[in-house]
């Protein structure tokens, strides 16, 4: 057995839909002969696309955290809530475990995800050779946890629908909710555009 | 390729070309370089996914026909279902957010279930449904966007927030969403695209 060899070196590509290994010809529109999923040896323009989504998400990350995601008006006056003040409210009112869950899902995960994607994109661009296994695991983690940031969007939606008690209290959604939803979707696209196989390509070339 | 050798596979995470080991029942093959799961040999994976999927579709109907939670305070009573909640967002001029909620908790899970059943039911009976490739492609595209488990956590967080404000009345759909979340997870865990395509190929 020779050293490690990637499928791409043998002009083979694995199908992301059904896992079938097939030959990639010169043709641009290669498709899996079994399930018809488009085949790419590597995801097209992976790094450029990942950066574009990272930058867009990072810009929207600011209004997502500064603008209110909901406005409560009640007998005791009006109150605007940002993501962070929602966490503080839960903490102060005694549900510290839920405060922790919301803090992780809404503040920690989006930030950690952006940082992780920047590290991955930079390391691939600079042809880094360190810790490919850990970086692949980091990528899998990013893909796994990203969706949980939608939590606050659902909470706001349910509160807006329910707290419509005429004289006593009403809740309206704030523009921060839109920015926050956009951040979640954009970081998901960023993670989908990144191709973890690029991490291993550098190691490949030197062996051969 | 030698006749006696096991087939070649490439890892979808690091692209390492390797021979697929013969798996015992219930076994899982991992990439020897990066540890990604290459294949599993779970017996009757398609039948299991079909059973879980049918159950999930039933709960999906119940979860969307009944209110999730009601709120009563001083004679006022408000209750909402998932679609009602999305409509409330839409009415407050948050159309994109309403669309995002609807897409991730209603459209994507429903499309995922229908596509799975469309492929699995004939496959388990030894037939190949028309346009199987197109439906499978739609399934792989829609899969990352179903976020029912996050929505269930969202319901729980809302309940705690509301409990300070008024008395909360859990609805039928609350329990249905909990069960739906578990059945969806079981469906995805049992579904094996390779097993499905082996059956579809054999049926052709």
UniProtKB/TrEMBL annotation, chain A:
Tell me which GO cellular component terms the UniProt record holds.
plasma membrane
InterPro entries recorded: PqiA-like, PqiA-PqiB_transport
* Keywords, sorted A to Z: Cell inner membrane, Cell membrane, Membrane, Transmembrane, Transmembrane helix
- One Pfam family recorded for the sequence: PqiA
Tell me where in or outside the cell this protein is found: Cell inner membrane
What is the top-level taxon of the source organism?
A: Bacteria
Give the stretches traversing the membrane.
51-70, 96-124, 145-165, 177-194
Question: What name goes with this protein?
Answer: PqiA family protein
* UniProt organism field: Azotobacter vinelandii (strain DJ / ATCC BAA-1303)
TrEMBL record, chain B:
Identify the InterPro entries for this entry: PqiA-like (IPR007498)
At the top level, the lineage of the source is Bacteria
Q: Does the keyword Transmembrane apply?
A: yes
Transmembrane segments annotated in the record for this chain:
49-74, 94-121, 141-160, 172-191
Q: Does the keyword Transmembrane helix apply?
A: yes
- Keyword annotations for this protein? Membrane, Transmembrane, Transmembrane helix
Name used for this protein in its record: PqiA family protein
Which lineage is the organism of this entry classified under, starting from the top rank? Bacteria, Pseudomonadati, Pseudomonadota, Gammaproteobacteria, Pseudomonadales
